[in-house]
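Notes, Module 5: Reading structure tokens.

Key idea: the token line is not a picture. It is a compressed description, and you learn to read it the same way you learned to read a sequence, by spotting repeated patterns. We will look at two proteins. The first is printed below with its tokens.
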Amino acid sequence: MIGYVTLGTNKYDEAAAFYDALLGDIGASRVMEADTFIAWGVSPKSPALSIIKPQDGNAATVGNGVMVAIAMDSTDKVDAFHAKALELGGSDEGAPGPRGDGGFYAGYFRDLDGNKLNAFCLT
């Protein structure tokens, strides 16, 4: 249902390196690229995550309450993805672990621009 999610960045080159390394660990690579944006996915026909320099020329800002969730198929992969994000300079927003009673397991972090993401799986 979701085609892609775009995150604004003020640190284009650093964000590109962050997501190349982070998303590369789960088999994603650049599927589309131009002067002001890059999109990563596992194929051009799968959902993607992209970064962009805002078209209006103003600074990118973090949306309050906005979060991107990256689906994983195991708790080990959630743990590794969260750790990789922190290793690459992201900040912790909630260590990986179970949330609630429904078998939801997630780890939360912010990227270099402060965008909030999580890695999750259903156990």
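Here is the second protein, with the sequence above and the tokens below, as before.
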Amino acid sequence: MSADIGNETKRSDRSSRTEGLIKNTDGSVDLYFGTKAPAGKEANWIQTNEGQSFFVCLRLYGPEQAYFDQSFPMHKIEQSK
């Protein structure tokens, strides 16, 4: 039984296994949250619904010391226009 995701794309996540995910030259990934995908970034987009809140959950498998000592470059979510 699958949960019904309440947006047009019927998905609420992106993962390192997502086909077509656009990676930066250093291997990092930029994710985009919003009601519309930025042009050319559709593979890295997670649709949100106008007027509804959302939350972000990051799951790391087998995190290494860099995560624990906070030297892992975890950037804050920034609003773009």
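Summary for the second protein:
- The CA atoms of residues 26 and 73 lie 12 Å apart.
- The chain has one domain: 1-75.
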